[in-house]
């Protein structure tokens, strides 16, 4: 099967701080891969390099055979095909949930307003909050806001969705509802690259776990082997700490 997303030797520095030191990976259509690792190791920066929100200093990103990092590539067209779900939701506070989801369909994809709203309602229904279509972000819980963020990404019919620690800004009791949506989206066959500390989601949905440390991929493998027989001592140490913090559930929630 052909790779849908490929990154090759991605480097990124901020001043003298080298955050990414040559990160390469690939995803096939319908795959879910999860990136884990300590804070400050470049995981979120790597996701932002993929859709060029933070352009890499060196390296290549390819989406279905098109080089995203080529200056001649229409990055705005590419971003329509790479959904992004942010840690802090990034919703427009002055727009309703429905308008947050449909605005990109209307303004970017140039759909008629009625068609954009129809598709927006379908996306909200897909994440279980169609009844909140007329609510504004301030009227929604954190979990509901994040589900609007996921609906916004899905509504554009992307080829890949990037999740950047989508539950880390949520209260513990709200995490489950977002994970349920992520699991549903993965089971529907969406291609997903997620940065998360939710090991239950990683165990149940990921084809591969990727452990990043100090801007590099230190270890990667299928969940069963990764969690039971990690090869690197640093990976074992990290997993032990994560288990203490977040538990060791094999379920998605």
Question: What can you tell me about this protein's structure?
Answer:
The chain is α/β, with parallel strands linked by helices and 253 residues long. The chain has a single domain, classed as Rossmann fold. The protein has nine helices and ten strands. The protein has helices spanning 43-50, 75-79, 97-107, 113-126, 142-155, 172-187, 199-205, 223-228, 233-246; strands at residues 3-14, 17-28, 32-36, 58-63, 66-67, 82-85, 160-164, 192-195, 208-213, 216-221. Strands 6-7-8-3-9-10 form a six-stranded mixed beta sheet, with helices on both faces. A four-stranded antiparallel beta sheet has the order 2-1-4-5, with helices on one face.
Topology:
Blueprint: E1 3-14, E2 17-28, E3 32-36, H1 43-50, E4 58-63, E5 66-67, H2 75-79, E6 82-85, H3 97-107, H4 113-126, H5 142-155, E7 160-164, H6 172-187, E8 192-195, H7 199-205, E9 208-213, E10 216-221, H8 223-228, H9 233-246
Parallel strand pairs: 3-8, 3-9, 6-7, 7-8
Antiparallel strand pairs: 1-2, 1-4, 4-5, 9-10
């Amino acid at each position: 099967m052909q790779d849908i997303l490929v990154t090759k030797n991605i480097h990124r520095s901020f001043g003298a701080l080298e955050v990414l030191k040559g990160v390469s990976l690939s995803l096939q259509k319908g795959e879910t891969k999860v990136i884990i690792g300590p804070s400050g190791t470049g995981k979120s920066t790597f996701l932002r390099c993929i859709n060029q929100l933070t352009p890499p200093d060196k390296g290549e990103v390819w989406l279905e055979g098109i080089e995203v990092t080529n200056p001649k590539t229409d990055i705005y067209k590419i971003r329509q095909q790479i959904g992004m779900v942010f840690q802090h939701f990034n919703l427009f506070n002055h727009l309703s949930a429905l308008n947050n989801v449909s605005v990109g369909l209307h303004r970017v994809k140039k759909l008629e307003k009625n068609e954009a709203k129809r598709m927006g309602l379908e996306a909200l229904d897909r994440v279980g909050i169609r009844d909140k279509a007329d609510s504004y972000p301030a009227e929604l819980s954190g979990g509901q806001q994040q589900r609007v963020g996921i609906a916004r990404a899905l509504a554009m019919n992307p080829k890949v969705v990037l999740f950047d620690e989508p539950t880390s800004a949520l209260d513990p009791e709200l995490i489950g509802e977002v994970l349920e949506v992520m699991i549903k989206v993965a089971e529907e066959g969406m291609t997903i690259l997620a940065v998360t500390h939710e090991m239950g989601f990683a165990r149940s949905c990921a084809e591969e776990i990727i452990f990043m440390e100090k801007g590099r991929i230190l270890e990667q493998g299928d969940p069963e082997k990764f969690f039971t027989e990690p090869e690197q001592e640093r990976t074992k140490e990290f997993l032990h700490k994560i288990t203490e913090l977040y538990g060791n559930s094999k379920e998605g929630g």
